Amino acid sequence: MADKIQVPAYREYPIIPTIVEDSMAHSKPYVAKPEHQESVGFPGELVDDWQNVAVKKLGELVSQSRALQVFLDTCVKCGACTDKCHYYLGTQDPKNMPVARQDLLRSVYRRHYTFAGKYFPKLVGARDFDEEVRDEWYSYFHQCSQCRRCSVFCPYGIDTAEISMAGRDVLDAIGVGQKYSNEIIGKLHKIGNNLGLPEPALVDTLEGLEEDIEDDTGIPVKVPVDVEGADILLITPSADFFAEPHIDGLIGYAKVFHQAGISWTLSSYASEAANFSMFIGSHDNLKKVAMRIRQAALDLGVKRIVVGECGHAWRVAYSFWNTLIGPFDFLDPKYPAPQHICEVTYDLIQRGALKIDKEANDHRRITFHDSCNVARASRMGNMPGGQFIIPREIIKACANNFYDMAPETIHQNTFCCGGGGGLLTDDLMELRVKGALPRMEALSQVVKEHDVDTLVAICAICKTQFAKVLPYYNFQMDMITSLHQIVGDAIQLGSND
User: Fold this and answer.
1) Which residues have a Cβ under 8 Å from the Cβ of 34 and sit 6 or more positions away?
2) Residue 112 in 3-state DSSP?
């Protein structure tokens, strides 16, 4: 596959690319099979009278969300968002401009739910929801990672993510869903994690990890499962259980808790932090997935819930949990509900509860990638901009060589990794490679200026995406690293035990 993908060339940054009409019209993820659809409560195949079903569903979504209606009604085509999308910058397809992607849905909304669209459709660009439009939706609403960068620059704050979620929700309602996301959600409903990893396999995996840590450090560090009465329930992405570089992050969490003397546990019932339901805009599935976490916390009698390194998991937890599955009056009120693992580690470092040797990371020259859902849809700690400050301060506390990428490419302006929003599937590899271009350009610059060799992220999707696309841009695959691997390598086990 690698030799079939034309990797975009680096540009003198920034450059607005020349338009190439329909250059990505061919890009479509695999359609969900009936069993994938039905497992998440959607029709297994294209329904009868699908046009009217789609229009009705769109009307329901607009009536339920004042924000969505405002987003559809207020765009003035100013163009402020045009060059802000990494997919447009990488693909040159004009339909990947946020305003154009919004218009895919807006045109149908106008046709059926506005006076001008009903009576003067051509005048306002209104369209019927026919087969051509349906296919266009399926292609281009799966070329949006819902990163929300465009919303930062929009003078009206229009959020394209909300529009792409609505578009996918409509498609699911008529039986045209995406295999990747819907299959994953179904596995989580059935087993408790995205991998479909059953409890015995999970326990065996973690026991093996404990042995590996002791062999490496000489210290028996536990990675507990289903421990009742533990202080912390850690909800982490299931990638942390088996894959590089994620597993090194899990080892880092375990070392932090071990040295700080904090009792903690994972849950075999709710062994997944990620909630792909947000990507498809399904409130029902969003709640159902999140309820597993609430139930696990109640069953185990924990004092707080801590979310591991997963960007959209933290967005869902921070932005939705309180109203979705709250209140959390059964947790210890001294702590935020929920809490991010970086908040826990940062607090311990600030209090001197961890013995750190920064020189243990002297072989690394480090930069940091702000993951979209953390940067633009959440906070950390009790300080403005804590989601930017806390991860960087943790790195600086654990390493001597840290260098930020260009200011216009970090913090709230961060570029997406190119694989978020339910697009982390090999059938969209061309899109993922091209969408990564702006981040790769910024990375290339900091590598050139500071000899950076380590890219740190706190999102499982970002880490998986970078491990795949870095080689396309002539970087080493193992350049991508979990933040808590940096922490774990710096912790001096046994010092405070």
Assistant:
1) 44, 45
2) helix
pTM assigned to the model = 0.95
Closest CA to 488 of 360, 344, 400: 360
Residue 247, H or E segment: helix 246-260
Cβ atoms 237, 307 nearer than 8 A: no
Give the strand order in the sheet containing 339-340: 264-265, 232-235, 304-307, 339-340
Residue ranges matching CATH 1.10.1060 in the chain: 10-184
**C-alpha 125, offset from chain centre:** 33
Query: Can you read off the two tokens belonging to residue 229?
Result: 């009465």
Residues 6+ apart with CB under 8 A from 409: 415, 438, 439, 442
In which band, very low, low, confident or very high, does the pLDDT at 349 lie, cut at 50, 70 and 90? very high
* H or E element in which residue 250 lies: helix 246-260
Pair of tokens at residue 429 = 């590899």
Residue 213 burial (C-beta neighbours within 10 Å; 0-12, 13-18, 19+) = buried
- For 221-250, what is each residue's pLDDT tens digit? 999 999 999 999 999 999 999 888 999 999
Amino acid 4: pLDDT: 83
Quick: pLDDT tens for 256-287.
Answer: 999 999 999 999 999 999 999 999 999 999 99
**Distance of alpha carbon 102 from alpha carbon 378, whole angstroms:** 24
- What are the beta bridge partners of residue 235? 307
Q: Is the peptide bond before 327 cis (omega within 30 degrees of 0)?
A: yes
pLDDT at 373 over 90: yes
- Residue of 124, 114, 136, 154 whose CA lies nearest to 24: 136
Distance CA 206, CA 180 (A): 26
Helices (H), 65-195: 66-74, 86-91, 98-113, 115-119, 131-140, 149-153, 160-173, 179-191
Average pLDDT, the chain: 96
- pLDDT tens per residue, range 150-209: 999 999 999 999 999 999 999 999 999 999 999 999 999 999 999 999 999 999 999 999
Q: If you classify domain 10-184 with CATH, what class do you get?
A: mainly alpha
DSSP symbols for 417-480? -S--TT--SGGGHHHHHHHTHHHHHHHHHHHHHH---EEEES-HHHHHHHHHHGGGGT--GGGE
What is the structure's pLDDT at 13?
67
Cβ proximity of 191 and 198 under 8 Å: yes
12, 151, 163, 441 from 461: Cα distances, Å: 28, 21, 21, 19
